[in-house]
TrEMBL record:
Stated name of the protein: Putative peptide export ATP-binding protein YydI
InterPro entries: ABC_transporter-like_ATP-bd (IPR003439), P-loop_NTPase (IPR027417)
All copies of domain ABC transporter, residue ranges: 1-200
Keyword Cell wall biogenesis/degradation: no
Keywords for the protein's UniProt record, in alphabetical order: ATP-binding, Nucleotide-binding
Gene (name only): yydI
Any GO molecular function: ATP binding
PROSITE patterns in the record: ABC_TRANSPORTER_2 (PS50893)
Length: 202
């Protein structure tokens, strides 16, 4: 995935100016950015610049209807995707032990987020954009999501995952390329320590 001569404005504010960057397959690319600087708009704009049949965006605001039971969701997914793939991703997300008779509204926030991840990742898009995916989750769920993402990208080297985040723990738990969105540019970094130092310094 290449971005060439890319400029992004939000109202009167310019977020990026004339950026040229390539995002590699088989890797998680982190784009570190401070809160309130336009991360979600950046994610949405990237989605608009790619083919809709090859790209998806998952944010902390994604929701599955609470009135469904888990078994209803499983039935719906089984009509669209192979059971083998559903079972594999469910295992990676540690979802296999949830009672299927439960209503989704009875699940924890972490379980709901993992169901959302399952539903989106089954769609088999080439480019996956994560917008603050672990926001407001407990540490156990966050660790499980990290384990899932690391395993998923190993098993799917043709995929591109962009993780737009302000969570520095993402960088230490998800191996990948590092960029800092700052001063209207995407600056690459070779180490977690160096990007965190620059992020904190501002």
């Amino acid at each position: 995935m290449k971005i060439q001569n890319y400029t992004l404005k939000i109202g009167k504010k310019t977020l990026l100016t004339d950026v040229n960057v390539s995002f590699a397959q088989g890797k998680i690319t982190h784009i570190l950015e401070k809160n309130g600087t336009g991360k979600s708009q950046f994610a949405k704009d990237l989605l608009l610049r790619t083919r809709p049949d090859e790209t998806l965006i998952i944010s902390s605001y994604a929701r599955i209807p609470n009135d469904l039971r888990l078994t209803d969701l499983q039935t719906f997914l089984a009509q669209k995707f192979s059971q083998e793939k559903i079972d594999r991703l469910s295992t990676l997300l540690n979802l296999s032990n949830i009672d299927p008779k439960l209503a989704i509204k009875k699940l924890s926030d972490g379980q709901k987020r993992k169901l959302e991840i399952l539903t989106f990742f089954l769609s088999d898009k080439s480019i996956i954009i994560l917008d603050e995916l672990t926001n407001a989750l407990d540490q156990t769920t966050i660790r499980e999501i990290y384990q899932f993402l690391n395993a998923f990208i190993r098993e799917n080297p043709d995929k591109i995952i962009l993780n737009i985040t302000h969570e520095m723990q993402d960088l230490t738990n998800l191996t990948g390329d590092l960029y800092l969105l700052n001063q209207q540019n995407l600056t690459p970094f070779s180490s977690v320590d160096s990007i965190i130092e620059s992020y904190v310094r501002g």
